[in-house]
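[User]
Um, tokens okay?
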Amino acid sequence: MTKQPRTFSPQEKAQVALTALKGEKTIAQISSDYQVHPTQIGHWRKQVLDNVAELFKDNRKKEKQKEFNRQIELENLYKIIGQRDTELDWLKKKLSVFDPR
């Protein structure tokens, strides 16, 4: 039988990585405490260091841009609906000539 690899939740990964970043314990000690391979601890630690700047990134600009794009798309959809209504009215008018009522 093969052993199923253990999966770690994001919270567990963060806890292990932060413990490694603190430097109070060696990687070997952390490895035995959390039952994680030392190489994996190094990968998680590197991921935290590489992505820590994303935590402080200002997302308000992106939200404003998304809202602006949504507004433009909504205006375009209303324009298309208006054109279709006009076309439909025109077709009904033209086809009413053939209506025997």
